[in-house]
Design a protein that fits this description.
This protein is of the alpha+beta class. The protein has helices at 21-39, 47-52, 65-80, 90-96, 136-152, 252-264, 266-276, 294-299, and strands spanning 5-11, 61-62, 118-121, 126-129, 162-168, 171-176, 184-188, 199-203, 206-212, 217-219, 225-227, 230-231, 236-237, 242-249, 280-285, 290-292, 300-302.
Length: 304
């Protein structure tokens, strides 16, 4: 999924039935490999790339179970965010020259429409999309969800004797005990390049995900500085005044979704959007200022 992958496993002495860390790594790696094969736009042979090749033809085709579930979740997120989360940004990314997105068809500047972009036939596991889709962020969140479930199927319950953290390029999911016998301590990184975290949050279970323009930005052929977080209203990079948004939530896929929604609100509206959903959210402005919601403040142990 375009990210380095790290696994931390904690097994207390005397714990019966805890899976071997090697087995945990194997199933976590397998889930990310499968997610990459099915949901990555960086691969011409992925299931989503094949689907995108038929976008707009109106023909409903069977797809893999993972791709079907990913599209169903993206559709729900599109509806819940009023269209602010829209996987049809793939075309805009291609127009701007983003690596991993190449589509020769013309792309309208404005993406957001009220018409449904996904047709589903649940009984057949079949879909049709009206335009090419990008499932990168939500795909990584789902890979984290599936990886955690895969470790849980190995048999040992998460708790005081067994815990783990899966870290996919700074997007994480945690469960069970931490190395310090308490909550997992998660740093909110400085997206402007500082060597120390801007804050530290204590998370007992769930996910912490970030949308940031620290790495995914480039210069277009006409000399414009752009990034990958596209506003569906304009088809252009959004999030005016922001460089990063982090959200803590029970589920990593939804944490990914809400980071995009808050980021695209921009610096002036990020607080209103995050608070209206009761999110634990942290955001960093272009000036390097860190702000957070009341729910995030409750989870933050530093700065006090």
């Amino acid at each position: 999924m375009g990210s380095p992958l790290r696994l931390t496993v904690v097994v207390r002495d005397g714990t019966d039935g805890a899976p071997d860390p090697g087995a945990c790594w194997r199933v976590v790696s397998e889930e990310f490999d499968l997610a990459d094969l099915e949901l990555s736009n960086f691969r011409d042979d992925s299931a989503v790339s094949e689907l995108n090749g038929h976008a707009g033809d109106g023909v409903v085709r069977p797809v893999t179970p993972r791709l079907y579930r990913s599209l169903a979740l993206a559709d729900r997120a599109w509806r819940m965010t009023g269209g602010a989360f829209d996987p049809r940004v793939y075309g805009a990314l291609a127009r701007l020259g983003h690596r991993g997105a190449s589509d020769p068809r013309p792309v309208n500047a404005t993406i957001r429409t009220t018409e449904r972009w996904l047709v589903r036939e649940a009984s057949e596991g079949a879909v049709a999309v009206t335009a090419p889709v990008d499932l990168g962020g939500i795909g990584k969140g789902l890979a984290l969800r599936w990886a955690l479930a895969a470790v849980a199927r190995l048999g040992a319950p998460f708790g005081d004797s067994f815990g783990l953290m899966v870290d996919a390029g700074g997007d994480i999911v945690v469960a069970g005990t931490s190395p310090d016998d308490g909550p997992w301590l998660v740093g909110i990184e400085d997206p402007l390049g500082g060597e120390t975290s801007l804050a530290v949050a204590a998370i007992r279970a769930g996910a912490v995900c970030t949308s940031s323009i620290r790495l995914a930005r480039w210069t277009t052929h006409d000399g414009r500085a752009v990034h990958h977080l596209i506003d569906p209203d304009t088809g252009e990079p959004g999030g005016e005044g922001l460089v990063a948004v982090t959200v803590a939530a029970a589920d990593p896929a939804w944490a990914e979704i809400w980071t995009k929604r808050v980021f695209l609100a921009g610096a002036n509206r990020a607080a209103d959007v995050a608070r209206s959903r009761g999110l634990a959210a942290w955001w960093v402005t272009e000036a390097g200022e860190l702000a957070m919601t009341p729910a995030a403040r409750q989870a933050t142990i530093w700065p006090a």
